[in-house]
Amino acid sequence: MSLANGRPYLAIPGPSVIPDRVLRAMHRGSPNIYEGPLIEMVAGLWPDLRSVAGTTGHVAMYIGNGHAGWEAANANLFHKGEKALVLAVGQFGLSWANSARAMGIEVEVLDFGKSSPADMARVEAALRADKGHKIKAVLTTQVDTASTIKTDIPALRAAMDAAGHPALLAVDCIASLGCDEFRMDAWGVDVLVGACQKGLMTPPGLAFIWFSEAARLRCGKSDLATPYWAWGPRAEAEEFWQLWNGTAPTTHLYGLREALDMIHEEGLPQIWARHRTLAGAVWAAFDAWAAGNPAIGMNVSDPRHRGHSVTAARFGAPHATRLRDWCETKAGVTLGIGLGMAPSTDPAYHGFLRVAHMGHVNAHMTLGALAVMEAGMTALGIPHGPGALAAAAQVVAKGA
Question: What class has domain 31-265?
Answer without folding.
Answer: alpha beta
